[in-house]
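User: Sequence recovery, please. Input:
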């Protein structure tokens, strides 16, 4: 073995510390113990005396000196008297306690008093073993610390790695995802075709003097396939794919985030052409200097470094940055300008056609009954994202296995939709007054919604509890609605008030329950938005509230556009007027159709669920349905 100064230091220092600790913990206490025991042996006498006898000697003036030990519980008394042969005797006395009256007596008798402290150097065998184990642990730790640099080879390796990027690099040409695997976002895929072409054949653009966008920002709600689309771009182009989350750049230590940004783009330039995908970029790209408490220095330094890397003094040739967020409104304006993110592509919730394509993708590997209509499922799931539809098909497959079936049927899919939208199914209600009241409440929603011209069609009415709801009335829109008219909003308000109107008409004001609490929240929100955002009231065509006024953005508290007290009063009056008018309309519908309502309630209590087509057929026998 070749000895160097590092090896000598590695073994000499721990062994020296070990010997010092053993000397301090074992040898010195042993020497102190022997010395202290010898001294105590000299002081303690062999003869003993009772405490009462000691007091008698003290009264007769025979006590000359008292040495106190063990916190005053033991005394060595020097006494001279006729009973002691007129010689100085050392006698041991056990004192019950060092009382307050003993010291004055000793001082009054001119007795020499000396107190001896307890010897703390002595230790028990258990304490000695514990000290020895601690010493061994310290020595082992020192050896481990001194040996680590030799094993690692670079003592500064960890410090450098702390500032490196944590990006997940996929160097293979195939990411496993193609454009065919991404459905429902045809517009976004068309936009990205140019990016794929540039990565495959850049000369097509460079010959004409065109440059590909340096950055593309994907904006859309969660679960719409932004990350999947970015992987599909890399898979189509066959280039390396760097994937990182925006939150991985932000650290407690100043400068770490900026260091990771530099390292990420350094790796990307070395592997160009490539794609850098930053998910949830709003974690690091939020507006600078905003919020009630000001900005975050570390996050802003990280953002500044990202801005420099994306459009600095040198061009990032062949490096395309794709970022995803669902909060584009809070991103810094410098990040969104052309030259950094040249394009913003909206990846929105799919329409009916897009949902059908997504359902086809997620049903390829599942055994589905031939009677199942994916088109019908797509119509029943407005507002579902791609992730929601994938979860829907998975829940239906799990329920099929639970029921012991070999094929997924419409029944499992219907139950899966209900579970995703409203929650787990609860225990059926028992026949009681409460069940009948809930039945009238739900039939009130259903009949008002059916008899209103601009309301969505009723899909079904059920008394099966789901989540927090004791009963549910499902409505299915006839088509995807991007624009909603004033008559449609008023119809929805009237339909939402149908349950409360039925309770009032059937049972009276004194029996009205809390079941309409959620309905009233929705009604108030819709009516207020009609007044303050959509200009659908007598207040006029004014927009008095923004869609989002989060204080942390530093906007709502500094905008200075608060309406006057008179306008606020008018807003409240118009909101109340809209709700009151709609509620009266719901009351009139319930009163005019009391007979069919009673029949439907009895049928609902008996069957637990009434489908929409059956409901419309029954109502049409009593009154004319709107066209």
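Assistant: Recovered sequence (627 residues):
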């Amino acid at each position: 073995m070749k000895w160097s100064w590092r090896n000598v230091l590695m073994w000499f220092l721990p062994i020296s510390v070990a010997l010092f600790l053993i000397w301090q913990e074992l040898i010195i206490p042993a020497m102190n113990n022997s010395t202290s025991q010898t001294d105590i042996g000299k002081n303690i006498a062999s003869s003993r005396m009772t405490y009462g006898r000691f007091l008698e000697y003290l009264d007769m003036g025979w006590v000359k000196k008292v040495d106190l030990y063990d916190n005053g519980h033991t005394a060595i008394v020097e006494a001279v008297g006729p009973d002691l042969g007129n010689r100085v005797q050392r006698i041991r006395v056990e004192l019950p306690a060092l009382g307050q009256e003993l010291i004055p007596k000793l001082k009054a008798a001119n007795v020499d008093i000396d107190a001896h402290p307890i010897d703390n150097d002595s230790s028990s065998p258990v304490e000695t073993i514990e000290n020895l184990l601690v010493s061994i642990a310290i020595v082992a730790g020192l050896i481990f610390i001194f040996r680590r640099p030799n094993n690692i080879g670079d003592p500064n390796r960890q410090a450098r790695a702390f500032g490196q990027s944590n990006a997940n690099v996929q160097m293979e040409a195939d990411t496993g995802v193609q454009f065919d695997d991404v459905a429902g976002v045809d517009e976004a895929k068309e936009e990205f075709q140019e990016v794929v072409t540039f990565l495959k054949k850049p000369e097509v653009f460079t010959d004409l003097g065109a440059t590909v966008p340096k950055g593309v920002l994907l904006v859309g709600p969660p679960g719409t396939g932004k990350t999947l689309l970015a992987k599909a771009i890399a898979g189509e182009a066959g280039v390396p794919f760097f994937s990182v989350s925006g939150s991985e750049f932000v650290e407690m230590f100043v400068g770490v985030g900026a260091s990771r940004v530099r390292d990420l783009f350094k790796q990307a330039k070395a592997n160009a052409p490539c794609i850098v995908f930053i998910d949830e970029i709003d974690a690091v790209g939020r507006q600078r200097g905003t919020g009630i408490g000001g900005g975050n220095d570390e996050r802003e330094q990280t953002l500044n470094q990202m801005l420099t890397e994306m459009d600095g003094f040198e061009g990032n040739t062949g490096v395309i940055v794709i970022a995803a967020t669902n909060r584009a409104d809070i991103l810094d304006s410098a990040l969104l300008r052309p030259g950094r993110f040249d394009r913003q592509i909206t990846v929105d919730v799919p329409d009916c056609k897009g949902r059908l394509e997504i359902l086809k993708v997620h049903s390829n590997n599942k055994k589905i009954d031939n009677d199942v209509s994916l088109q019908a499922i797509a119509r029943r799931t407005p507002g579902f994202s791609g992730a929601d539809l994938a979860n829907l098909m998975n829940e239906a497959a799990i329920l099929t296995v639970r029921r012991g079936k070999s094929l997924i049927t419409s029944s499992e899919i219907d139950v899966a939709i209900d579970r995703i939208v409203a929650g787990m199914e609860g225990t059926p209600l028992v026949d009681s007054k409460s069940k009948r009241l809930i039945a009238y409440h739900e039939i009130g929603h259903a009949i008002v919604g059916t008899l209103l011209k601009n309301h969505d069609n009723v899909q079904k009415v059920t008394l099966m509890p789901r989540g927090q709801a004791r009963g549910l009335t499902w409505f299915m829109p006839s088509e995807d609605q991007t624009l909603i008219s004033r008559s449609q909003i008023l119809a929805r308000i009237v339909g939402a008030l149908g349950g409360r109107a039925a309770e009032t008409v059937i049972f009276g004001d004194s029996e009205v329950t809390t079941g309409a609490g959620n309905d009233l929240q929705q009604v108030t929100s819709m009516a207020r938005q009609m007044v303050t955002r959509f200009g659908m009231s007598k207040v006029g065509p004014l927009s008095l509230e923004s869609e989002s006024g989060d204080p942390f953005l530093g906007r709502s508290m500094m905008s200075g556009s608060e309406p006057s007290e008179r306008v606020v009063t008018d807003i409240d009056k118009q909101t109340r007027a809209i709700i009151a008018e709609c509620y009266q309309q719901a009351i009139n519908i319930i009163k005019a159709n009391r007979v069919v309502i009673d029949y439907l309630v009895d049928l609902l209590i008996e069957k637990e669920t009434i489908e929409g087509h059956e409901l419309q057929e029954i109502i049409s026998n009593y009154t004319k349905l709107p066209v």
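The chain is about 50% helix and 10% strand.
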